[in-house]
Amino acid sequence: MLFIQPDTPASLWEMLVVTKLAERTAAYAIEPLILNRWSSRAMSGEPMSKADLMPLIEAARWAPSSYNSQPWRFIYAVHGSPQWIHFTSLLDEFNRSWAPKAGALLVLISKKEFEWGGAARTHSFDAGAAWQNLALQGSVSGLVVHGMEGFDYARARELLNVPDDYEIEMMIAVGKPGDARQLTAELLAMEKPSDRRAASEIAMEGGFQSEVAAKV
Ligand SMILES: Cc1cc2nc3c(=O)[nH]c(=O)nc-3n(C[C@H](O)[C@H](O)[C@H](O)COP(=O)(O)O)c2cc1C
User: What is the pLDDT of residues 93-103, one digit of tens each?
Assistant: First the structure.
């Protein structure tokens, strides 16, 4: 396992940081909080207090949803709690190489049916909106928030007693930022905000266009 040593010259470290900040440019004027959110993997391992965690849940609570059905639920464990080992045991090998340094792990689930009956067609979509609210709030609060699909969904259902009428959507690692130099070289190389497709590639006026046509 390769580590960047803590005594890495400051100039080299600054160079890495400057390079990574240079990677995101918005083509149109948008709110900085959207551009500044990104998924770091460097966390301190400090347990999340309720005071730090609950504002993120509060942000999720205010997401819009179909019929205001609010299908999202968050099952969580705080680092070091009796349930912590259960949550970390769900992670796949890759995520196990960094996510146990989170201060809390959350499993986002969504209710597949409306309380008044009938299939809630957009339950996952609505849960996605709640996740994004949570991630943005975490980002402006100076926390690392990192979504994960790399975990055992079937075991999560069993271990966390998730009923069949709920979909298991994702796990979320939340934590205080940590020293990125403690990450493996593989993880450190990924430790930067990523770019996005151009707006012209994802917006299609009038009807579906193939990617080739849309780019012209
Ligand atoms: C639903 C979802 C699942 C993800 N699963 C993983 C995962 O299992 N492991 C991981 O390291 N990152 C995971 N990510 C993080 C994405 O790779 C990341 O959000 C994406 O590359 C965009 O980068 P950014 O969040 O820094 O803008 C996931 C993100 C989302 C939203």
Answer: 999 999 999 99
